[in-house]
Design goal:
146 residues; Lipocalin; 9-stranded antiparallel beta sheet; 3 helices; 25% helix; disordered N terminus
Length: 146
């Protein structure tokens, strides 16, 4: 009985981690604009780190990065920092057979094999390590316009 209970518990744990990431579909991103959000405070392990990350988070509030997913895999990246004039770059995007969003590189943005998956209404970055997807940095994309 213990063996069966342990197996059932392990199955539930692994199923919940698989279900946490959803496939990205073309209709989720095409012709929409997403803002890069920073969630640095969640990485703090102690009071000193929280103070430091709060200061950095305040600076990051002054930087706006938008990803405009256009048709036929075109991507426009718009960056505005500290009230300066907006800067833009072009790149590309595609969704692979596994429903993972892949962003192309641009002049100032290197995707580094990052895979974006849906978690609720957000797109979050993952990296494949040893055949498993591991959550990346404390950033995510949030849709701001369809």
């Amino acid at each position: 009985m213990k063996r069966f209970s342990l197996a059932a518990l392990m199955l539930l744990i692994s199923a919940s981690s698989v279900l946490a990431q959803d496939r990205v579909r073309m209709r989720d991103v095409e012709d929409s604009v997403w803002k890069l959000e920073f969630d640095l405070k969640s990485d703090a392990d102690n009071a000193l780190e929280r103070v430091f990350l709060n200061a950095v988070d305040g600076l990051m509030d002054e930087i706006d990065i938008y990803f405009e997913f256009r048709d036929r895999g075109r991507l426009d990246v718009h960056v505005s920092a500290f009230g300066d004039e907006e800067d833009g770059e072009r790149s590309d995007w595609h969704i692979n057979r596994r429903g993972q969003l892949i962003l192309g590189d641009s002049d100032h943005f290197d995707s580094d094999d990052t895979i974006w998956m849906r978690e609720g209404d957000r797109l979050v970055p993952y990296e494949e390590k040893r055949g498993k997807l591991e959550r990346e940095d404390s950033i995510y994309l949030k849709r701001v316009r369809r």
